[in-house]
Specification:
single chain, alpha+beta, four-stranded antiparallel sheet, 10 strands
């Protein structure tokens, strides 16, 4: 085996590996996506292929990142790396990742606790600021006595840059190979966002994007790791919370704006989403604001 796999950091279940093929020949290595663990492969240079048995082969290319999460079983695969390929691998349990990320409207659905039993895959380009951070990890100029502190801080920085630039449009399931179908699923999601407060039923949405209900349901869940109804639920109530934060609307008005005529139904759903009723949420927000005012010198 020509490539070198070196673990450079292991703390609090967060693992950082350096994978390199510095030879002039292709290098083969066995790898595994451990169940209930998130895996981020950052390809800094070079390219190769990931072979998931006979079912699927995935090309990996320079300055792209590949995010995998498998909730049920370890997923073994083979890496075939071209010469002069360098990859940084960051892995941690999903629960550990939850602790690092603040839940807000821009966080992908994989981070919601209720989706811990759903598969997830994402491929996207590495942003310029993330690329700089990764190269600092690759060649740290720092003394040995603080090297663990350095890597620990860099993991937080990597995750920050990664999720700042995450968009659902870039999500791709490795087992959805039909690009035409992918475009239809993406179009369905965009249509849902534009009409979230008065959404069409499933059969109408399928007709609008040019597919059938079965392909739409299954494809949407594979691509985004969440059902259409759950996607709408999270989107609507994230928007409801934003409206409440403006302090311009009553609870009844916000309920109406996001498509609920029955305010009691809206309150129940809001509490399911955030663990607090809209009224108590507004009270706690006011109390926090007053506390901040009173403690300001």
């Amino acid at each position: 085996m020509n490539n070198t796999i070196q673990k450079v950091f292991d703390k609090e279940e967060m693992n950082l590996f350096l994978i390199k093929n510095d030879s002039t020949h292709n290098s083969i290595a066995d790898a595994c996506i451990t169940k209930k663990t998130t895996h981020f492969y950052f390809v800094l240079n070079g390219k190769g292929k990931l072979h998931f048995g006979e079912r699927y082969t995935k090309d990996i290319v320079t300055q792209h990142t590949y995010f995998f999460y498998e909730p049920n079983d370890d997923m073994h695969f083979t890496m075939n790396l071209m010469p002069q390929t360098t990859i940084i691998l960051l892995s941690m349990p999903l629960e550990q990742l939850h602790k690092l990320i603040t839940m807000d409207t821009h966080v992908p659905f994989i981070l919601y606790t209720e989706n811990k039993n759903e598969k997830h895959y994402e491929e996207k380009k590495i942003s310029p600021d993330l690329l700089v951070c990764l190269h600092q990890v690759l060649l740290p100029h720092i003394s040995e006595n603080v090297i663990n502190l350095f890597y620990h801080g860099k993991i937080y920085e990597i995750m920050s840059f990664y999720f700042i630039h995450t968009t659902n449009e870039e999500s791709r399931c490795p087992f959805l190979n039909n690009q035409s179908h992918l475009k239809k699923i993406t179009a369905a999601k965009e249509y849902l966002i534009k009409n979230a407060f008065n959404p069409p039923n499933l059969s109408t949405l399928a007709l609008i994007v040019g597919t059938n209900t079965s392909q739409l349901k299954n494809g949407f869940k594979q691509m985004y790791g969440i059902s259409i109804s759950d996607y709408l639920f999270h989107y609507k109530f994230n928007q409801a919370k934003i409206l409440l934060d403006t302090e311009k609307y009553t609870v009844q008005e916000v309920a109406n704006k996001v498509g609920y005529e029955n305010v009691s139904h809206f309150i129940d759903k809001f509490k399911k989403k955030f663990g607090i009723t809209p009224k108590k949420y507004l009270i706690s927000k006011y109390v926090n604001q007053q506390t901040n005012v009173n403690t300001t010198p």
